[in-house]
């Protein structure tokens, strides 16, 4: 058994070992076993950073399809750029950081044309 930081790995196959309080730790992959007495006493401190993954990995993907079932959309007297119908449905969502404007999703009530703007 070897370890890197606070993670323990099987010496035979390299699988991450699940540390339980039994007398032996058994590798789930190759069934090799190690006595728990071989584990050194460690004081483990972990920290996390909220933005460690970056916004592109944690930002939720929101599309018009996910908005269709939502009942918070409102009707506005706005002309559709495609068919010139005078009423559109709209909904705003805060998709970027709080100090930036919201994204507004529009849908024509007549032809169904959809578009969004970043306010």
How would you characterize this protein structure?
This is DNA-directed RNA polymerase subunit. The mean pLDDT is 76. The longest helix has 4 residues, at 55-58. This protein folds into two domains: 2-38; 57-118, N-terminal domain of TfIIb, CATH 2.20.25.10. It has helices spanning 55-58, 64-67, and strands at 2-4, 7-9, 24-26, 33-35, 74-76, 88-93, 103-108, 114-118. Strands 5-6-7-8 form a four-stranded antiparallel beta sheet, with no helix packed on it. The protein has 119 residues and is mostly beta strands. The protein is built from two helices and eight strands.
Main sheet: which strands, in order across? 5-6-7-8
DSSP E strands, number: 8
Portion of residues in beta strands equals 25-35%
The tally of helices reads: 2
Q: Which CATH architecture of the largest domain would you pick?
A: Single Sheet
Instruction: Pick out the low-confidence regions.
Output: none
Question: Using only CA atoms, what is the Rg?
Answer: 27 Å
Order of helices and strands: EEEEHHEEEE
* Apparent shape: rod-shaped
Looking at how many chains there are and whether they match, the oligomeric state comes to: single chain
Summarize the amount of helix as a percent range: under 10%
CATH C-level name of the largest domain: Mainly Beta
The number of distinct structural domains comes to 2
* Biggest sheet statistics: 4 strands, antiparallel
Mean pLDDT reading:
76
Derived structural class:
mainly beta
Instruction: Report, as a whole number of angstroms, the end-to-end distance.
Output: 56 Å
CATH topology of the largest domain: N-terminal domain of TfIIb
